[in-house]
Specification:
CATH class of the largest domain: Alpha Beta
Shape: globular
Structural class: alpha/beta
Distance between the termini: 44 Å
CATH architecture of the largest domain: 2-Layer Sandwich
Number of domains: 2
Oligomer: single chain
Number of helices: 14
CATH superfamily of the largest domain: Aconitase, domain 3
Length: 437
Amino acid sequence: MRGNGLVRGDGRTLSDKIIDAHAVDPGETGAYREVRVDALLGHDATIALLVDEFERRGLEIWDRERVIFTNDHFSPPATIERADISNRFLRFARERDVTHLMLDRGICHQLLVESPLCAPGSLIVGADSHTVMGGGVGACATGMGSTDILYALATGRTWMQRPATVRVRFHGSLGAHCNGRDVVLELLRLLGESGARYRSLEFHDLGHVPLGQDDRFAISNMAVELGAKFGVFVPDEVTAAYCAARDGRRPDDLPAPDPGARYERTVDVDLSALTPRIARPWSPGNVVPVRDVERRPVSVAFLGSCSSGRLTDIRDAAEELDGKAVHPHVRFVVIPASVGVFQEALEAGYVATLTSAGAIFNHSSCGPCGGIDKGVLGAEDVCVSTSNRNFRGRMGHWESRTYLASARTVARAALAGHIGPDLYEAGGAREARGARG
């Protein structure tokens, strides 16, 4: 990585231009600007917090066709309390005839990027911090608290400050063992959890082999772990192809920063030099190369979450487990990010490969990522996970330990029964010895 200081210029960055395009008063020059939003994202656990106040004030949703609501935290509910929360949320959405109510269809951030509402140049707010994942297709998307979401839900507007922008340029191409998770973990190693606090991370893919769309989603999703307001890729041919496959047509135009845009700093990353990365407890920024991590037995391997539960992640794990067996001391839980991803994995044969190796598939939802259900950790558990946070107690018991890694590293750890330097050396993954016991 190389970095430099302020890149001076009079032009606007990508986030500057998107905020300006959505300004209610284009002539306003204050620090904060009122802006119109293109879409609003909410899920059961957070929208339920604003129902009473919304109804007490007699408010109405400003545009029911621009709201995406999902029940992803409690899907299906594991306790009576969570069933009541889910039902409260669903009643609220149904009574207001929300067009895009996604009932048990997956994690909200994945469903957002599967929607045409998440388009290059759009401005999106969501009641969850990982809404930033919309930046993978060139949208300025950010999370907000329930009070701010209440205002936006009723008015279609919010107040926003133009963040300073850090330009991140990717060069070269990823090696066979790395994906977007390794890239963002490397950025966390280099910059730390506050390295982009209230900044826009503007990603420029200059590699001779472009990053795949799933890689871009993984990077944008965890931009918030660096403190970023936005984690937005400059749209390009990869973006256009994704939108065309999703929406049935290519975007009319792709927004771009001005040639003389003003950046706070520039960070250059050589993807060709990157090796697999892993974050040790209890911080997403506590990152080392896998070859340098201490050897430690694991009891749980988790592949899922909005960060890394996509088709290419499941494919990578299936490649690692094909014809092999999960270590008998490891529970390997797989949760696709959406039902659509699960269906694609079924059609590709990845589900059969992984279940034959001993993996467990669960319904598309947040699950153990937030310590909710379907694989939470006990006191003695050591987990290697594709989730986006490994704070103490987040995935379960306070005494459990979580390591963050890519799907390929998680699958190798599930086979070997441990993490350690040998995962990417010959013999690091155990060959099958009959059925998993």
